[in-house]
Amino acid sequence: xxxxxxxxxxxxxxxxxxxxxxxxxxxxxxxxxxxxxxxxxxxxxxxxxxxxxxxxxxxxxxxxxxxxxxxxxxxxxxxxxxxxxxxxxxxxxxxxxxxxxxxxxxxxxxxxxxxxxxxxxxxxxxxxxxxxxxxxxxxxxxxxxxxxxxxxxxxxxxxxxx
Amino acid sequence: xxxxxxxxxxxxxxxxxxxxxxxxxxxxxxxxxxxxxxxxxxxxxxxxxxxxxxxxxxxxxxxxxxxxxxxxxxxxxxxxxxxxxxxxxxxxxxxxxxxxxxxxxxxxxxxxxxxxxxxxxxxxxxxxxxxxxxxxxxxxxxxxxxxxxxxxxxxxxxxxxxxxxxxxxxxxxxxxxxxxxxxxxxxxxxxxxxxxxxxxxxxxxxxxxxxxxxxxxxxxxxxxxxxxxxxxxxxxxxxxxxxxxxxxxxxxxxxxxxxxxxxxxxxxxxxxxxxxxxxxxxxxxxxxxxxxxxxxxxxxxxxxxxxxxxxxxxxxxxxxxxxxxxxxxxxxxxxxxxxxxxxxxxxxxxxxxxxxx
Lengths: 162, 357
Hints:
The complex is a heterodimer of chains A (162) and B (357).
Chain A: E1 12-18, E2 21-27, H1 29-34, H2 45-50, H3 53-61, H4 72-78, H5 86-89, H6 91-101, H7 113-137, H8 141-161
Antiparallel strand pairs in A: 1-2
Helix pairs in contact in A: 7-8
Chain B: H1 2-7, E1 21-30, H2 43-58, E2 66-70, H3 76-84, H4 90-93, E3 100-104, E4 109-113, E5 119-126, H5 130-145, E6 152-153, E7 157-158, E8 170-177, H6 179-183, H7 187-195, E9 199-202, E10 215-220, H8 228-274, H9 280-296, H10 302-313, H11 316-323, H12 329-344
Helix pairs in contact in B: 3-11, 8-9, 8-12, 9-10, 11-12
C-alpha cells in the first residue's frame, strides 16, 4: 500500500470518523511524522486532505451558469440554484452533496407525462432520421419514402402539441 | 373585500378534529421549463410566470371554484393571517413582487406562485390520511402539467431551486399533538430517532418555529431516490409508531401521577376562563391541555374542535383581525384574553369517570 502523500510504503493506517462518516488514510512513517499523526490531539484527516482541496476549488470556483449567472460561490453560500441549466453546470459539485442529502441519487418518482411524450417523440424523430439516412445510403428508396412520411407525421404532431 | 373571500364562516369546511394526528399535508414543488427560478428571475420573467401559472391553474378541475390573489394587493396583516392559517409560507408573505395564491373554495387545495419555486402545490386533509391527500395533489399536479412544461430531468426528477427538494419535489407532513411525549420528556428522544430515518420534526409554523402547545409538524426530509408512495409509506409507518408512543406516554402519565395531570388540565380550564392578559404561547399551552382533556373524555368532543380553532385565533395576526386593525402586543394580550374568556365561559366540570380513549 502506498502513502497518500508520497510513493513510499505506507506503514501508518489512519481511520477517523467525521460527522458520522468514516475516512481512511494510509501514510508512510515520514509523512505521518510531518503531519503530526504521532500527536492524535492535533490530528484531523480533514487537515491532511486539505492539501488536495485547493486543486478542486480552483477548478470549480470559476464555475458559472451561463444561462442565469449563478456562480459556484453563490450556490455554496445560499444553497440554491438559479435555473434548470444550473443542474448541468454544477452537476460535479452537486452529486456528492445529493448523496448525503437524499435516499438515493436517481429519481424514482412521478414522471410528467407530457414532457416525457415530448422527449420520446424527439428521440423517435432522431431514430427515424438515422434510419432514413441509412435507407438513402443503401439506395432503398421505397423504405426511405415510407420513413420520410412517418417523420413528417411525427413532426406535424409534435408541432401541434407544443 | 379580501377578508370576506377567505374568512366568511359559511364557506369552507369545518374539519372534524382528530386526536393526536390533526391534519395531513402534501406539498409539491414545481418549476416551469425555460424560466429561471424565482430567486434569479427578473421582474418581467416573474410576471410572465405568474400569468402563465394562473392561466394553467384556471383550467384545473379542483380549482375551478377558487379564489386567486396577487400578494402585492394584500396588506401586511392579511399576509400574516394567511401564514397563521398555513395557507401561505412566511417566504411568500415577504415576497416583493408577482407572488400569487390560488385557493380552492373548500380551502383543501392551495397553490403558491413564485415562492422559492414557481409553483408550490399544496393539499390539506383531516387526520392522518396520505392516500387521499396524495391522490388529490397528484391529480392537481397532472392537471397543471397538461398546459405547462415543467423543468424535469430523467435522472434528477423535478428540478427545484433548492437541491433538498429535488426528485419528487414532495414534502409530506402531519401536524401532531404530542403532549404526552412532551410532558414525559421523551420528545427529544423521538426527534433524534426519527431524524435518523430522514424525517424532520418542526414546530406548528414550520421551520424555526417553537413547539408551543405541544404541536409538531413531522415531515419527510428526503425527496430523491424513492418514489412518492415509498416515501409516504415510510413516513406513515413512523407516524403510526409515534401515535402509539404518545398513547403509551399518556397512559403512563395517568398511571404514575394522574392527579398531577388532572390538576394541570383543571388549572388550564381555570386560566382560560379567568385570564385578563395572556400571551399566545401561554394560551397555546392551555389549549393543548383542553385538547388532551377531550381525548381523555374529560370534556365533550366539541372542546377539541374549539381548541383547534383557538390555536389559530390566538395568533397575533388573528387577534388583530378581530380588532379590525393592527394593535400593540400589550393590547393584543388583553383582547386575546377577552376572546378566550368568552369562549371558555361555559366549560363544564371535568368528567373524571370517563374512559381513557
